[in-house]
Amino acid sequence: MEQKRKNESIVLGGGCFWCIEAVYERIKGIESAVSGYAGGTTEQPTYEQVCSGLTGHAEVVKIEYDPSKISFKEILDIFFKAHDPTSENRQGADVGTQYRSIILYTTEDQKHQIQQYIQDLTNRKVYSKPIVTHIEPLKVFWPAEDYHQNYYEQHPYAGYCRIVIAPKLDKLGLPIDSLLK
Hints:
Strand content: 15-25%
Number of helices: 6
Radius of gyration: 16 Å
Distance between the termini: 29 Å
Oligomer: single chain
Order of helices and strands: EHEHEHEEEHEEHH
Strand order of the largest sheet: 7-6-1-3-2-8
């Protein structure tokens, strides 16, 4: 009898969580993508608190994935194409520590794979500047408020969605409309 592998999770931050969430919601093998906050010290932070830059949290997305349908390396490939990992505390017009490039791993194996992946990118000189992505163990993930969840799907014609998210999805070759996966 074949034993089914359970889903795994990883928490990724690469600027505004709406962007990262919109990207991963379109990927086969991703079971869920939930916007939230992690990497800081404030318990149950609000969006306003995180935006202040005083909580230490980053805007992140908790990715639940089926490893029989998508590999961890593929998740990293997408992440490093979906944002600029050489930009410290900034992605486009979004500036502050809450927009830092960060990966919060859930297993030691993930940590090892992330370190190897970044070392490979560095060795191949994929970027002209050093990669500044923070790699930390996930301590706690705080889901963002409901109005942040599935933001792009609910507001595809909002300014930020049209100007920032849609071009990013297009650049990555992902569907821009609401027909997912």
